[in-house]
Amino acid sequence: MMTLANQLRVLTVGTGAIGAFYSWRLQQSGGCVVTTVCRSNYEVIKVKGIKIQTAAWDEGPHIFRPDHVVNTVPCETFDFIMVCMKALPQVYNIADIIAPAVNASPNAAIVLIQNGIGIEDPIKARFPRNPILSTIAYIGVTQNEAGVVFHSGHLRDLIIGLFEPVKGVDAKSVLQIFGQLCEKADIGTTITDEIQSYRWRKLVWSVSMNLISILSELRTVSNVLASEKYKQLLVTVMEEVVALGSALGYDVPPTLVGQSIATSESLFEGYKASLVVDFEEGRPMETEVIFSNPIKIAEKHQLTHLIPTWYRMHKELFEYLAKHQAERK
């Protein structure tokens, strides 16, 4: 039986900035043994560990040495399989990637620390007997070089909820245990029964700022806010995301628009939204889970009339991305 009294076994799949930071904190709790799956940074982390640069803790230097470092997902038993890879269904199938560990761990909880809407569905379809802990991270971390993670500020929050009940499984207890482990690790932890509402709340900023930063070619948050034209467009798209989320029955308060603008204004000069960075670097972008899935839901429920500006810009974005991809070839 899984309890905090035992050493829990955690597998991290995707040991980039997010995966490395939260794996480090969980290990620091003393309540778990951590195995990390590393690919491009495998050799560096195997030998030197991961340097965590942060002002959130006074002690240092912070060197995270996972209990085990592997370069492929092992066929071993774990209590929690923590997925920190970007949700890129157009590039890879996460269910296929984690299958060896899940198949060996019929009681493991799958923790999805990812952005977007609809990320849980393919995992649930493949592994219906494993609890899925849908998780949203609010944190500023980057890994600009292999084995070095920079944590900006003190925010390191996780909002965690059970995706769906699992018949015959006490999934709520599993959720509580993971939440307690996170609290023990000094991670700001919120357990909620309304995780999808929180996903739509995060979408208010993610959709609007990424769309407008890319299409306007202004790129940075500060540049967008400095333009009255694009700042107003930003507010319009935010209001439409709120309207769609609310119409679908989620708790997405209109006050989020003002809060999102205030948060944007507090970011450092030159800050760029995540998809903007991926676009500029020529990396795959989380366009499907952040942009396309919500649009498909709006179409399915015949609610596109609530999002005229967002709906138009969604089409323009994919035309813009296709044009730039062709030019890069």
Question: Could you explain how this protein is built, in words?
Answer:
The protein is of the alpha/beta class. It has 2 domains: 8-193, Rossmann fold (3-Layer(aba) Sandwich); 197-328, N-(1-d-carboxylethyl)-l-norvaline Dehydrogenase, domain 2 (Orthogonal Bundle). It is built from 12 helices and 10 strands. The protein has helices spanning 17-28, 42-48, 94-104, 121-126, 171-184, 195-215, 221-226, 228-247, 255-266, 274-281, 287-300, 308-328, and strands at 8-13, 32-37, 50-53, 62-64, 68-70, 80-83, 109-113, 132-145, 148-162, 189-191. Strands 1, 2, 3, 4, 5, 6, 7, 8, 9 and 10 form a 10-stranded mixed sheet that branches. The protein starts with 7 loop residues before the first strand and ends with a helix.
What class would the helix/strand composition place it in? alpha/beta
Q: What would the CATH topology of the largest domain be?
A: Rossmann fold
Q: Which CATH class of the largest domain is shown?
A: Alpha Beta
Radius of gyration: 20 Å
Order of helices and strands: EHEHEEEEHEHEEHEHHHHHHH
Q: Quick one: biggest sheet?
A: 10 strands, mixed
Mean pLDDT: 95
**Could you give the distance between the termini?**
54 Å
How many distinct domains?
A: 2
Beta percentage is 15-25%
Ordered list of secondary-structure elements with their pairings:
Blueprint: E1 8-13, H1 17-28, E2 32-37, H2 42-48, E3 50-53, E4 62-64, E5 68-70, E6 80-83, H3 94-104, E7 109-113, H4 121-126, E8 132-145, E9 148-162, H5 171-184, E10 189-191, H6 195-215, H7 221-226, H8 228-247, H9 255-266, H10 274-281, H11 287-300, H12 308-328
Parallel strand pairs: 1-2, 1-6, 2-5, 3-9, 6-7, 7-8, 9-10
Antiparallel strand pairs: 3-4, 8-9
Domain Ketopantoate reductase N-terminal: 11-163
Organism: Lobosporangium transversale
Function: Catalyzes the NADPH-dependent reduction of ketopantoate into pantoic acid.
